[in-house]
Amino acid sequence: MIFVGDGSNLHPLDIRPERALVLGRMTTRERTQQLELMQGTLDLLILQTLAPGRAHGHAIARTIERRSDEVLQVGHGSLYPALQRLLRSALIAAEDGVSENNRKARFYRLTAKGRKQLYTETSKWERFSSAMARVLAPVAEEKS
């Protein structure tokens, strides 16, 4: 799960609204504070994170968190299903290796198909965010 907030007050973002992950111990108040993020956003973030080169799951999550100034917090319960989805779609490939901590780790990398998908989805996201910025920008009062 991805969380947003200022570090001391984090709220989960539901990245797959049609199948929201709701923990049994989550209160009704916490459920109503969930925000929805466009489906596929985590996939795009993962693809972008892997663009420079291969990385293991923890490094992917940490990079997204760091690059978003800790606004986006990626939980393992969302990250690993997303990685499996990307593997099944052949957008990434995986190989076993050893992490910088000398532990066994699975490293992920973009495939050619994944690089093409990253370009396509980034272009869509840029158009979407530009349109949102235009709609949300303050406008002078229109004359009736």
UniProtKB/TrEMBL annotation:
Pfam family, one: PadR
SUPFAM superfamilies per record: Winged helix' DNA-binding domain
Gene3D superfamilies: Winged helix-like DNA-binding domain superfamily/Winged helix DNA-binding domain
InterPro entries on file: Metal_resp_DNA-bind_regulator, Tscrpt_reg_PadR_acidobac-type, Tscrpt_reg_PadR_N, WH-like_DNA-bd_sf, WH_DNA-bd_sf
Ranges where the Transcription regulator PadR N-terminal domain occurs: 46-118
NCBIfam families noted in UniProt: padR_acidobact (TIGR03433)
The name this protein goes by in its record: PadR family transcriptional regulator
Organism expressing this protein natively: Edaphobacter modestus
